[in-house]
Amino acid sequence: MLDPDTFKTHSEPKDIFELYTKSDIDILMERFDVERLHFIGTDMAAHYLPNIIDNMDDKTFEIYFRYHLSICERPDLVGASNHILDVFKII
User: Using CA atoms, how far apart are residues 5 and 42, in angstroms rounded to an integer?
Assistant: First the structure.
């Protein structure tokens, strides 16, 4: 679902998933009277550390989760996430 030369995303109706960049979503949402409240990377480092996170004790997980919350909306890091939650409010 990526162009091998440009690495741009593309999706077709037969695909189970659709891939969009933030700029694609921005263009799509321009026609709606909405305000973006949050653009959140939902998995961030969890994608790379699933077994480690699953085996953390409660104290370590609390530290990890505080870290996750501190980075999940940073524009310079949100692209590292495999999944994004985009929250809008109708205005």
Answer: 28
Which is it for strands 34-41 and 84-90: parallel, antiparallel or unpaired? Answer: antiparallel
Q: Let me know: does 45 contact 78? Beta carbons within 8 Å.
A: no
Domain boundaries, the chain: 1-31, 33-90
72, 81 contact by CB (below 8 A): yes
Gap between the Cα atoms of 83 and 66, Å rounded: 19
- Asked if 81 and 42 count as a contact pair (C-beta separation under 8 A), the reply is yes
Residue of 40, 6, 3 lying closest to 25 (CA atoms): 40
Rounded to whole angstroms, the Cα distance separating 34 from 30 reads 8
pLDDT bin (cut points 50, 70, 90) of residue 16 is confident
What is the reported pTM? 0.78
Q: For the chain, what is the mean pLDDT?
A: 92
